């Protein structure tokens, strides 16, 4: 794998040049993590934007102002991206920070800190579908080709942040102990209020029932889709073309059924199962 016009290669992972640079990765590596930082970690297209909406609301007592006035990339910056250095000083503690990096590449101060991590995972079949449509609309990503061709790239790690299976396994690290909460996209689709309560409890925070209702309502797909601060409509059309696909596209679990043939699905799952063998990670998405 080599860097090209669109991507730079960092420890064998493709990162889009639009948002990553040598400087941003330097900043990432030297970043001083604080004990009260809260990290949202995800493989791309697993519900990151959703978490960038939920977590700040839980950390600030349910005040909607920040999510209605600050774009998600500045509200909860990606630590590896160029914006991090610009906005980090403006964040008040506890800071919510997001990363797509695998565990072993986190900055050294992360490992000695007590910072908490909310890891959101999603059915890989829906991740690949969401990613496929993202590649169709984002001019800073390569053309996905056919869905079958894109699956091949996905399963060989020729996509942003490498293989889904490697990412999942890297963050299932026993060293993290109770610093990490694993939550799934599907769980949130099924019971958003319940999922939010689980995160709230993990963060050791409380919200009144009214505030919890307000946050849950605000974070529903139909409402978030219209939040200009989170739906990427602030990004110029030539970078993200909403005529081709929306960033907040369908917001459902199971859209893979509209994209995979039975043969393609069987092959996809066989590879995933083989690579996840012995990881102790069980999937409940298709049950
Ligand atoms: P789809 O393309 O399947 O619609 P990420 O933020 O990690 O890039 O993930 C984007 C995916 O999360 C998109 O999936 C997007 O629609 C979905 N998403 C974002 N906010 C959501 C919400 N409030 N409810 C359900 N899905 C949401």
Word description of this protein:
It is a single chain. The protein is an alpha/beta fold and 287 residues long. The chain has a single domain, classed as Rossmann fold. The protein contains 14 helices and 6 strands. The protein has helices at residues 22-30, 48-59, 65-69, 72-75, 83-87, 108-112, 124-137, 147-155, 164-171, 185-190, 192-202, 209-218, 221-224, 262-276; strands at 7-10, 13-16, 38-42, 96-99, 116-121, 180-184. The strands form 2 sheets. Strands 4-3-5-6 form a 4-stranded parallel sheet, sandwiched between helices. Strand 1 and strand 2 form a beta hairpin. 37% of the residues are buried. The model has no long low-confidence stretch (mean pLDDT 96). The site of adenosine-3'-5'-diphosphate has 19 residues, from helix 2, helix 7 and helix 13. This is Sulfotransferase. Belongs to the sulfotransferase 1 family. Keywords: Catecholamine metabolism, Cytoplasm, Transferase. It is found in: Cytoplasm. Pfam families: Sulfotransfer_1.
CATH top-level class: Alpha Beta
Bound molecules: adenosine-3'-5'-diphosphate
Mean pLDDT comes to 96
Cα-atom radius of gyration: 18 Å
Q: Which parts are unreliable, with pLDDT below 50 for 5 consecutive residues or more?
A: none
Strands across the major sheet, in which order? 4-3-5-6
Total strands: the figure is 6
**What's the shape?**
globular
At CATH's second level, what is the architecture? 3-Layer(aba) Sandwich
Number of helical elements: 14
- Which secondary-structure class do the elements indicate? alpha/beta
- The sequence of SSEs as H and E is EEHEHHHHEHEHHHEHHHHH
The tally of structural domains comes to: 1
* The CATH topology: Rossmann fold
The CATH homologous superfamily is termed P-loop containing nucleotide triphosphate hydrolases
Helix content: 40-55%
Described by strand count, sense and barrel closure, the largest sheet is:
4 strands, parallel
Give the DSSP E fraction (strand runs of 2 or more residues): 5-15%
Give the end-to-end Cα distance, rounded to a whole number of Å: 36 Å
């Amino acid at each position: 794998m080599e860097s090209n016009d669109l991507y730079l290669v960092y420890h064998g992972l493709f990162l889009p040049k639009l948002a990553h640079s040598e400087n941003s990765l330097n900043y990432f590596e030297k970043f001083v993590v604080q004990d009260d930082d809260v990290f949202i970690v995800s493989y791309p297209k697993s519900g990151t934007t959703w978490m960038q909406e939920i977590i700040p609301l839980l950390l600030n007592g349910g005040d909607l102002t920040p999510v209605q006035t600050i774009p998600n990339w500045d509200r909860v910056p990606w630590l590896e991206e160029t914006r991090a250095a610009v906005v980090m000083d403006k964040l008040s503690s506890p800071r919510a920070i997001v990363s797509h990096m695998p565990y072993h590449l986190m900055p050294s101060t992360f490992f000695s800190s007590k910072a908490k991590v909310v890891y959101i995972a999603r059915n890989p079949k829906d991740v690949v579908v969401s990613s496929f449509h993202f590649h169709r609309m984002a001019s800073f990503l390569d053309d996905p080709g056919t869905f079958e061709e894109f699956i091949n790239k996905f399963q060989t790690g020729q996509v942003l942040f490498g293989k889904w299976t490697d990412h999942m396994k890297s963050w299932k690290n026993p060293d993290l102990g109770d610093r990490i909460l694993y939550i799934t996209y599907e769980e949130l689709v099924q019971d958003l209020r319940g999922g939010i309560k689980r995160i709230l409890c993990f963060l050791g925070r409380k919200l009144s029932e009214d505030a919890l209702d307000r946050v849950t309502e605000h974070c529903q797909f139909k409402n978030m889709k219209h939040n200009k601060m989170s739906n990427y409509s602030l990004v110029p059309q030539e970078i993200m073309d909403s005529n081709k696909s929306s960033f907040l596209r369908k917001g459902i679990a199971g859209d893979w059924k509209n994209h995979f043939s039975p043969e393609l699905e069987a092959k996809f799952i066989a590879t995933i199962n083989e690579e996840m063998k012995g990881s102790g990670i069980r999937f409940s998405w298709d049950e």
